[in-house]
Specification:
Strand content: 15-25%
Number of strands: 7
Number of domains: 3
CATH superfamily of the largest domain: Winged helix-like DNA-binding domain superfamily/Winged helix DNA-binding domain
Helix content: 40-55%
CATH architecture of the largest domain: Orthogonal Bundle
Number of helices: 11
Order of helices and strands: HHHEEHHHHEEHHHHEEE
CATH topology of the largest domain: Arc Repressor Mutant, subunit A
């Protein structure tokens, strides 16, 4: 077969992922109705690898993930990195991240349902997520007006590195630390994309009412119906302090302070 190396080179170049030797052989056999021996293919590929190892090329042919792929050489990574910084899109905003979390856990979901959870308009956030191809329109609701329904896309799964939506962490597994006391522990490693997706938006998705925090505060602090009682010295306190009453006389009172209800 004429120009076999160029045909193999073109297949490796256009492949989005590392292309296996089997796929190369099948593509050539079907295109030209010939049976090319694998030994010949392997020999040709090795010649291509030797060719691109030359300093005349900025890329080389690498065998990776059970296939072959063109990659840039390390010497040019700094230049490429600066170029990518100029063209890399900005990270998702907090609003877009919250909206994406709602869609991923509640899908299929309409914009009105998203707004019920967040309490604000989701129009702009949904539009940005559609532009980034992280969500897609999956149908219409049978309800009044037949609003559009949104769900996550295949690109969403690829970006967050999960096989399916079922692999997302359960909401009950995410612990909120908003009301914890003390300084947060130092971060020793970066959060994964999945962790960053659900971080800080658990309450928005679950719809936890604000009364929960109020109940906790009432338990920790004494109510107005409770009073502080100071025992006098005739109750034989284990430790005492001196205080001055209205007549100016010094008395010993118990140092222990007890919380006692007026009902008692």
């Amino acid at each position: 077969m004429d120009h076999l190396a160029q045909h193999i080179e073109s297949l490796i170049f256009v492949a989005e992922k590392p292309i296996s030797l089997e796929d190369i052989k099948d593509s050539l056999d079907n295109a030209y109705e010939v049976d090319i021996k694998e030994d010949l293919l392997q020999e040709t590929i090795q010649n291509l690898r030797a060719k691109y190892d030359s300093e005349d090329f900025a890329m080389h042919l690498v065998e990776i993930s059970n296939g072959f792929q063109f990659l840039t050489k390390p010497s040019y990574h700094n230049t490429i990195g600066n170029f990518l910084k100029l063209h890399t899109k900005k990270r998702l905003s907090r609003a877009a991240l919250e909206t994406l979390a709602i869609i991923s856990y509640k899908q299929p979901v309409s914009k009105s349902d998203m707004e019920k959870v967040r309490g604000v308009s989701c129009e702009y956030a949904v539009q940005k997520l559609l532009e980034k191809e992280l969500v897609e329109i999956v149908g219409r609701s049978p309800g009044p007006g037949r609003p559009l329904l949104y769900g996550t896309s295949e690109k969403f799964l690829e970006y967050f590195g999960i096989k399916s939506i079922a692999d997302l962490p359960k909401l009950k597994e995410i612990q909120s630390t908003e009301n914890s006391i003390g300084e947060a522990a130092p971060i020793t490693e970066e959060m994964s994309p999945v962790e960053s997706l659900v971080e800080g938006v658990v309450e928005e998705v679950n719809g936890v009412p604000e009364e929960v925090n109020q109940v906790e505060q009432e338990i920790e602090a004494p109510s107005e119906e409770q009073s502080i009682v100071i025992h006098e010295e005739n109750e034989l306190p284990s430790s005492s302090i001196s205080v001055q009453d209205e007549s100016g006389e010094m008395k010993l009172v118990h140092q222990e302070i007890q919380i006692q209800s007026e009902e008692e």
